[in-house]
Automatic annotation (TrEMBL):
Biological source species: Tropicimonas isoalkanivorans
Keywords, sorted A to Z: Cytoplasm, Glycosyltransferase, Magnesium, Metal-binding, Nucleotide-binding, Purine salvage, Transferase
Name of this chain's protein: Hypoxanthine phosphoribosyltransferase
Annotated compartments: Cytoplasm
Highest taxon listed in the record's lineage: Bacteria
GO cellular component terms given for this protein: cytosol
InterPro entries (alphabetical): HGPRT, Hxn_phspho_trans, PRTase-like, PRTase_dom
Chemical reaction(s) catalysed: IMP + diphosphate = hypoxanthine + 5-phospho-alpha-D-ribose 1-diphosphate; GMP + diphosphate = guanine + 5-phospho-alpha-D-ribose 1-diphosphate
Phosphoribosyltransferase domain ranges (all copies): 15-162
Cofactor: Mg(2+)
A GO biological process held by the record: guanine salvage
Amino acid sequence: MTSRPYVIDQMISAKSIAARIEALAREIEAEFSDTDKLVVVGLLRGSFIFIADLVRELDLPVEVDFLEASSYGNSMTSSREVRILKDLRGEIGGRDVLVVEDIIDTGHTMKRVVAFLSAREPGRLRTICLLDKPARREVDYTADWTGFEIPDRFVVGYGIDYAQRNRNLPFIGSVRFTGEADDTGQP
Ligand code: 5GP
Ligand code: MG
Ligand code: MG
């Protein structure tokens, strides 16, 4: 694999993310005010920071579970065949479920995940994504709640990686290449 030098331009600050999550949490609380216990399902790995911040804002009884679907691997191009790599630990039949995703891009991942979970006949099944790139959609899918609509840029930070790096940045930034590829094999 080749690598290219790049810099990260901040796109959404940590403060803006926190403010948006607060507002979204109020809407989610209103939707699920009558629920016994909401099952909040994070899609690994990109949503791990988003789900952590979101559940701490939710004044609702919640259970947290995780699902992993196949994604980009180390490349920047999407795969249209989505596989479930890790299933939930808990049961969701008859329960209210909120699926938490980092980014909706082509829409294939969310469409597949929603079909997979719907087959278990949950109660209400709702979805939230932090980022949405509507310009890249290949299949029709819109989350019930969206943090920010963004242009067609490759982003990192706040849980989201480029070749497994940059997940620990507290903000969302876009990757900008500054030079030619080399052959070090290191991203
Ligand atoms: P979709 O199936 O909607 O095309 O892809 C969704 C998944 O692709 C996201 O959950 C995320 O893992 C990955 N993805 C989409 N856009 C980006 C991006 O800009 N940066 C990174 N790191 N991953 C992305
Ligand atoms: Mg993802
Ligand atoms: Mg990834």
